[in-house]
Amino acid sequence: MSEPMVDTDRWIRRFRPTPAPTIRLVCFPHAGGSASFYFPMSAALPETVDVLAVQYPGRQDRRTDPCVEDIGTLAERIYRAVRPWTDVPTAFFGHSMGAILAFEVAHRLERDGGVLDRLFASGRRAPSRHRDERVHLGDDETVVNELRRLDGTDTALLDDEEVRRMILPAIRGDYKAIETYRCPPGRILRSPITALVGDDDEKTTLDEAHDWARHTTAAFDLCVFPGGHFYLIEQREAVLDRIARQLLGPTCAR
């Protein structure tokens, strides 16, 4: 039975089209996140970097689309949407849940003979490092308290009951997907991996982040920044500089 067609326009957001990119960077949001999280990155990186952002179902302009509560299924659908965009050198950037999705999509790309220039895995322990987390099984307050604790969502939104009802299904679905994910044994990429993490991230220790090295046969490096789980908001300039240098080289970075 053939796979269903994927409407790429539903999955991919391109905030600043680049006519002749040197490289394309596909960005994967965190649990509960949306493509717009990466608008500042798209605006700040050099014009030769064509930044795309994945829009998961169940949020923003895809709010009526059913959520996908399984990482493998979601990765397959994203891969089919992303594959047409890999006609130029391509790298992936994923934060938190997005790092795992980027890893799984990268595996599918390599499985089918594609090449990924680099995977940037941010704010997430290595795929083989499992924690028994069950936020998705809690009530709404449990989910909301987790979001407040991680400080990655505007708390004013969480105080609005109507907004809560609108956004919580997607957030809970994302948490279910990532908390029930188990990395298949021996899943290793051929592309280099850069792991990025905050030095005070309670969701990812430096040791857990360093284990991304076990998931590549190529080069690996670990970049540690001040901050917690959403270190990349406060450290945006330093993070963008690191990305630009690794994508374009030190003489071509911003």
Automatic annotation (TrEMBL):
<feature type="domain" description="Thioesterase TesA-like">
    <location>
        <begin position="26"/>
        <end position="247"/>
    </location>
</feature>
<dbReference type="InterPro" id="IPR001031">
    <property type="entry name" value="Thioesterase"/>
</dbReference>
<dbReference type="InterPro" id="IPR020802">
    <property type="entry name" value="TesA-like"/>
</dbReference>
<protein>
    <recommendedName>
        <fullName>Thioesterase TesA</fullName>
    </recommendedName>
</protein>
<keyword id="KW-0378">Hydrolase</keyword>
<dbReference type="Pfam" id="PF00975">
    <property type="entry name" value="Thioesterase"/>
</dbReference>
<dbReference type="InterPro" id="IPR029058">
    <property type="entry name" value="AB_hydrolase_fold"/>
</dbReference>
<dbReference type="InterPro" id="IPR012223">
    <property type="entry name" value="TEII"/>
</dbReference>
<comment type="similarity">
    <text>Belongs to the thioesterase family.</text>
</comment>
